[in-house]
Amino acid sequence: MTKCTPLNTVRAIILLTIACLALFAQQTSAAPANGLLSLEQVRIIEGGDKLGLRHPSNVRVTSDNRVLVLDGVSNRVVIYSYEGKFQGSFGKGGSAEAELSYPLGMTLDAKDNIYIADTGNARIQIYSPAGKYLEQIKLPQSEKQKRPDPTDVAVDNQRQLLYVVDNENHQVLIYSLKEKKFIHTVGGMSHTEDGFRWPFSLYIDSNGIVYVVDVINARIRTILPEQGFKLGHDIGRWGVEKGELFRPKGVAVNVKGQIFIADSYLGVIQMLDKKGKFQAVLGKGKVKRFTTPTRLYFDSTGLFYVVEMFANRVSVYRIKS
Question: Which among 47, 73, 115, 140 is most buried, taking Cβ atoms within 10 Å?
Fold first, then answer.
């Protein structure tokens, strides 16, 4: 399960063919040693019960080291131990108020409460650390807008803010975390500096800067909360060369401020600096190919999680710098 966006079919096929040819050339030629960032696989998280994982879309690790995987098609959150052992699930079954429908985004607050972008129901669901339903946030909709389509959610604990990506309306909604009160909108449909085209996911760094994956514009847009939620500089641009993006879907920032971007079509993950300059691509000996890398995440120990949606797994790595 992944969000589709309207593109001219013939043009899309041509562009994807060009992208794949470029990546093949990159893999079969000798890549410079400083262009590859080595990684070691720690574990793979998948399955655990009869349902297994069906198009997982996000992952988070709680303060007590439980791994939560958002299992999109099965409409639930699957709980694993830190070592990847299945421990249960929630979100499927029970009251309609508490159930999930094709969820895509997930995050935690400082108390490990779980916030989920409940895409199919056009709302944000909030659960306790144990998975008990607490409350929901209904998203605003004007007469001129389409039905809200939340695809991701993120919490800024320091500033007590909640960010929601509304994919269908090409915007990011901002709420006060405590009162769950809507306070601001950023963006709108645009291919220039003032908006987005089908934004999908977001990530907040230690300075509160918000990184939004602007899929069809093939860039990462920054939101600056200390400047009245002004849109900052772009990171990346459309293309298939190093430092360029074809169809980005996931973004994460490590403790050093390095930006990791997953390209779902090309199956590669690049590392850029804060200015968007190419630093490396993940791989050992050659470029590492992932299967539809959709979301990225660093836990508190520095382990790197890659949600591979169509492979129905979460792959966990230790990155060697």
Answer: 115
